[in-house]
Structures are given as C-alpha cells and as structure tokens.
Design a protein that fits this description.
7-stranded mixed sheet, alpha/beta, 335 residues
C-alpha cells in the first residue's frame, strides 16, 4: 500500500483531503473510488438526512452491544464513521475519547449536529495501513462500512494491530441476505429482456465466513450473530433512490452500464409480483452481521472462554447458545 497520512493519534483532526491507494490489485471486488464518489454525491442532496434511518438504527444496535461489557474504554476508533452515526449513541462513560474516520471527505464535512468529538475526524481508507501506532486503542468500532472492503482479512489485521491487548473490535456489516429481493428481481428481468445477467447488486459476505475471518486473523473470544431489518417501500424505484441517498449503490468492479428502461420496468413488476405486500408496498431485507473479537492477551484464561464469551455477547446470541445447551441436555437425558 502507499503510505497513509502519518500523524499521531492525539493529533488527528478534521483533515482537508483524503489519500487513496490503488496498488494492491489482489482479490478486488469493489471499486473503492466509485464508492467514495457515491458517498460524496449523497451529501450534495439537500434532503440527505431522510435516507439515514437504517444507518442510525444499526449504529444504535452496535452501541447496545457495548452495554454488556461493563467497562469504560478510554480511547476508541470508529472506522467508517459516515456522519458520526455511532458517536451519536456513545456516551463518554462508555468511550471517553473517540476518533472517527471515513473515506468520504464530504460525509466528514457534513457531520451530524448530534455527533461527538467533532475535532477528532480524519479521512482515510480502511484498506490502507491505518496511521496509528501499535496498541493505541482500547476499542475499535465499525458500523456498515466493512462490506465495501476488498481485503477484509487485511483490514481486520490492521484493526488488531492498533488495538491494545485484551481490547475488543465490535463491528456490523451487511450480510448475504441483504437486498435478496432486489437482486432476484433484477436478474429475472434482465435475463428475460436481454438473455443474460449482470452484477446489479453488490455481493455480500456470508455470516459463516465472518467468524472464520476473525479467527484466521488472530482474534479470540468471538461472537457473531445476525439481525434482519425489513423496510417497506412504495416501489422498487423508491428503494433504489434510498440506496443512492445512503451512498449504498452498487460499487462492484464488474457492474455494467445503466439498466435499460424496459428492464427496469420489468424488474419493478417482478418485484411487486413475487414479494409485494398486501398494502401495495414492497419489502427490502437488510441482514446485518454483528461481530465481536478480542485481541489476545496472556491474562485471558482459556478455560473461562465459554463463560467470558457469553458475558460479552448480545442478548439474542445468548438465547441461541442457551437453547443449544438445553437441547443437548434433553438429548442426553431422554435419548
């Protein structure tokens, strides 16, 4: 990678430019420059705030998982902060100081009025080497940003490098089931109209792969669970408008040109026919993969792994584990 902007963590302020790195061409799926431009363009709309409900909701759910930790983190990093969505929900008694980083300078320039630590904004690309010393942060957070990263293992490794020992990474990213209705409708319509299919919805990570990636990159005490948020839209066109407003349009390197008008109309009709609600709206599914991984430390006692893991997971994951243990016990007693 080209060297990132080298500044000390304590001196990271709101920057005036953002450097890009294009030297690593291995396993590229997403066009990072297009994604940056999409996010910047989203900020040009006068009504960009009306498209932020989903990002706000997921950020709140990430914050809710921090309540299980029962500790105060002195120095934190929000990687892919957008307009400060996570910071709005984080009290100082949870994270005392929060550096907020994003690849979009425009989003940093239009930081939310309720966002915190406005003097600690920095523009950087998650795919570069992070411009922080080893063992800098007590916690690293990321909400709805990693699903656009090409080299997720590399980014997870960088996050682990800047974490202090026995410090957690807490993140959320879109999963494989996200926008499955839109993907299927566009594929069916395009095959019917043109005899082929193109990549119209960006690929998303499998939930099962997230745990393996965290383990592969050296994290311990792992927790991975999923949420699904289903939002109603008047039509497929309204959904696509919202995706553009969020800066979440397709950024695949393999995407083709603009959809033909007849294909778009056909896809909208197929969407309504296959998935439409009784009230005339259409549902759009957003699957969120939540993850927690801790940087190893000798103080972490191996035989307490299960207890420690349960104490740091979401309530939903806790119920899933309890159900599994009860099921195993019943099989042992009655089979």
């Amino acid at each position: 990678f080209a060297p990132a902007l080298r500044v000390g963590a304590a001196r990271l302020l709101h920057t005036t430019s953002c450097r890009r790195n294009n030297k690593n061409n291995n396993m590229l799926v997403f066009d990072r420059n297009s994604k940056r431009l999409q996010r910047n363009r989203a900020m040009l709309q006068d009504d960009f705030r009306q498209y932020e409900m989903l990002k706000d909701e997921v950020a709140y759910r990430v914050m809710d998982r921090l309540d299980d930790f029962n500790r105060t983190f002195k120095n934190g990093l929000d990687l892919g902060c957008g307009r400060g969505f996570l910071g709005k929900h984080l009290d100082n008694d949870v994270v005392s100081s929060l550096i907020q980083a994003d690849m979009s300078q425009a989003m940093l320039d239009h930081f939310d009025d309720d966002a915190r630590d406005r003097d600690q904004r920095v523009c950087l690309d998650e795919e570069t080497r992070l411009p922080f010393d080893d063992n800098t942060f007590d916690i690293v957070l990321s909400s709805l940003s990693l699903h656009w990263v090409n080299n997720i293992p590399g980014t997870l490794t960088e996050i682990k490098r800047v974490l202090k020992p026995d410090a957690p990474f807490v993140g959320a990213m879109f999963g494989e089931n996200t926008l499955h209705e839109l993907r299927a409708s566009l594929q069916l319509a395009e095959e019917e109209r043109t005899g082929g299919m193109s990549t119209r919805v960006s690929p998303f990570t499998l939930a099962s792969d997230v745990g393996e990636l965290l383990q592969m990159t050296g994290y311990t005490l792992l927790t991975v669970d999923m949420d699904e948020i289903v939002i109603k839209f008047p039509s497929m066109l309204h959904l696509m408008e919202d995706l553009r407003g969020m800066g979440e349009s397709n950024a695949s390197l393999y995407r083709t040109g603009t959809l033909r008008r007849d294909t778009l109309i056909a896809a909208s009709a197929i969407y309504q026919e296959l998935y439409g609600n009784d009230d005339g709206t259409i549902p759009a599914t957003f699957q969120t993969i939540h993850m927690v991984g801790w940087k190893p430390d000798p103080s972490q006692v191996y035989h307490l792994h299960v207890i420690y893991k349960l104490s740091h997971m979401s309530f939903r994951s806790f119920l899933i584990h309890i159900h599994s243990y009860i099921h195993t016990l019943l099989l042992f007693l009655f089979c």
